[in-house]
Amino acid sequence: MAEATPQTEQPELHRAIGPKLLLFFVVGDILGTGIYALTGNVAGKIGGALWLPFLLAFVVAFLTAFSYLELVGKYPKAAGAALYTNKAFKIHFLTFMVAFAVMCSGITSASSAALAFGRTYLRQLLVEFFDVALSPESLVITGIAVIFIAALAIINFRGVSESVKANVVLTCIELSGLVIIILIGAYAVIAGDGEPSRLTEIHVPSGSSVMLAVTSATALAFFAMVGFEDSVNMAEECRDPVKIFPRAMLWGMGIAATIYVLVAITSSLLIPSDELAKAGSSALLRVVTVGAPGFPLWIFALIGLLAVVNSALINMLMASRLLYGMSNEKIIPKFFGTVHPFRRTPWISIVFTTGVAVILVSTADIGKLGGTTSLLLLVVFTIVNVACLVLRREKAEHKHFRAPTWAPVLGSITCAYLAMPVLSGRPWDDYKIAGYLLLAGLVLWVINRVLHGKVEIHPEKLGK
């Protein structure tokens, strides 16, 4: 028998992210598509009390963040939730499905951003500059969204350093857009133009209840708070992750939540919830039009355009890195882990995730993709919170952040509640899309088992 040829060692990922870049990464990933594209959809579910679901979504996410901080401190690897699941439960199939669900959430999030890019903000710019009015569902707009996804793949291929530095610029731009909304709201209050009574209005659909209306809106608004977990998947590309993660994540989430609540309050003060719901992904454009009629609408449209670019870039970056980590652990075909010799980026994984995003952009709408993203991550977060408690029995040799016990307990309960079909009031389309994506993962798992048999997963190697 011929001797096995030793495998060429893959180059390590470049540690290019420091504390400031990580903070911008967290803030930039949370801000973006959720608030720029789904404000109107959330208003349609809750009414004038638009700020409430965003606040509750922040509370649920903040509880889960404590579990992530403890776990990334103990295990600073790029595999994130998959690594924690494997260490806690040691069920290979569960580990794979968690990793695949996180990857899919990144792709669905980026796909919703691509649709917001084409159907909302780019379409508005076409109207402003060229007086061209295209239907949001036109083939031209869908084609533009597909081209947008392809452009993200090129940026991703160039490398993480270029990507996170582009993130800094884009985060500053999207922050400026939300600050504009907040300032418009402040001016309206001073001028006496707002309607404060709307802030306590909760619309209850016939046959429903206040609780169901609030949880349904919170389940969708949760999409606006996801993103903090993406930073965990960048652990191997950070300098001293154990030290810099807690402060960057908690500060980033606090900044994002404060901005969200202020934007939601401004929107409700200026515009009735039924008008916001009718505006859909153009709700913030409507706020600018009503609150500051003299403000050049094309400026905000351009800011919104760049904001969704930022969200999509970071999510596609995360998805490709996670697929790379799964490949290195041999739970999916190994060629997904191929690193480009010059750019040192996982180019096969980038191509695959881009292809899935193109399919989603061509077949779904923003609301469904946003709801699917939050559903996938709520299920994953439930598992991560439980894993944090289970792994308390495993001691690390180094000092790391330790979450108060009540945080993962409450985090697991609230995340599971918002993911349940009946209790959350979530539409069935969310479960349908999530089911199709996870079914694709199941097929990939079966193919790998047939070709390579049972593979022993080594958690410490998942992110290498």
Poorly predicted spans: 1-8
Largest sheet: none
Distance between the ends: 31 Å
The rounded Rg comes to 22 Å
Helix proportion: over 70%
Level-1 CATH class name: Mainly Alpha
Integer average pLDDT: 84
| H-E order | HHHHHHHHHHHHHHHHH
Instruction: Count every beta strand, where a strand is a DSSP E run of 2 or more residues.
Output: 0
Query: Which descriptor suits the 3D outline?
Result: globular
Q: What class, by secondary structure content?
A: mainly alpha
CATH topology grouping: Amino acid/polyamine transporter I
CATH homologous superfamily heading: Amino acid/polyamine transporter I
CATH architectural designation: Up-down Bundle
Query: Strand share of the residues?
Result: under 5%
Q: Provide the number of structural domains.
A: 1
Compute the number of helices.
Answer: 17
Walk me through the structure.
It is a single chain. The protein is 71% helix and 0% strand. Residues 1-8 have low confidence and may be disordered. It has helices spanning 19-30, 33-46, 51-74, 81-89, 92-130, 139-158, 160-191, 210-225, 241-270, 273-279, 283-291, 297-328, 347-363, 366-390, 406-419, 421-424, 428-452. The radius of gyration is 22 Å and the shape is globular. It has a single domain, classed as Up-down Bundle (Amino acid/polyamine transporter I). α1 (19-30) crosses α7, α2 (33-46) packs antiparallel against α8 (210-225) and α3 crosses α14. It is built from 17 helices and no strands. This is Amino acid permease. The chain crosses the membrane at residues 21-38, 50-72, 93-118, 138-157, 169-190, 210-228, 249-271, 297-324, 345-364, 370-391, 403-421, 433-451. One of its GO terms (molecular function) is transmembrane transporter activity.
